[in-house]
Amino acid sequence: MKRLEGKVVLPPTAGLAGALTNRRTARPASEDAVIALIRQLAAEGAAHGIRARRVSPGLIHTAGSRGLLADGHPVRGLANHTPPGQLGVPGDVVRAAVLLASDEAAYATGANPGVDGGWSAVLPGAST
Questions:
Q1: What per-residue confidence (pLDDT) applies to 16?
Q2: What is residue 114's three-state secondary structure?
């Protein structure tokens, strides 16, 4: 966990799997735990001036995601299902995190915005 400006807590990002998928694997369960931690930190920390937030990225085009985007991989078509029709880039997540860490977001606490190109808005059965 990283503390910025002495008043902002931004736990690691872990993606949207915890908020959007079934809960049958360890990864979504751990992401659910991080979301619960953010909510608890927001509730308990407010009296001490602490704001707690996290960013939940969708599939971001990075060197690590290249294998998921290879021909024949089932995830390859995901970009076609986001409203803008494309995947995100690392800067999309960085800009969201910088905004949440700034004084511009002073009233935001317990927040968990998805930076996923609207995928969570159109994914069948999503409940964020």
A1: 54
A2: strand
Q: Per-residue pLDDT for 3 more than 50?
A: no
Kindly report, residue by residue over 20-52, the tens digit of the pLDDT.
555 567 777 888 888 999 999 999 999 999 999
pLDDT recorded at residue 58: 87
**What would the DSSP string read from start to end of 17-76?**
HHHHS-S-SHHHHHHHHHHHHHHHHHHHHGGGT-EEB--EE--B-SGGGGGGGSTT-TTG
Rounded to 5 degrees, what are φ and ψ at 61?
A: -75, 105
**Residue carrying structure tokens 């690691």:** 12
**Structure-model confidence comparison of residues 103 and 125, the more confident one:** 103
- Strand, helix or coil for residue 87: coil
Token pair of 54 as six digits: 């996290």
Report which of 15, 38, 42 is spatially closest to residue 27, judged by C-alpha positions: 15
Cβ partners under 8 Å of residue 102, min gap 6: none
Contacts with 48 (C-beta within 8 Å, 6 or more apart), sequence order: none
Distances in whole angstroms, Cα of residue 77 to Cα of each of 27, 32, 72, 87, 96:
22, 26, 9, 10, 25
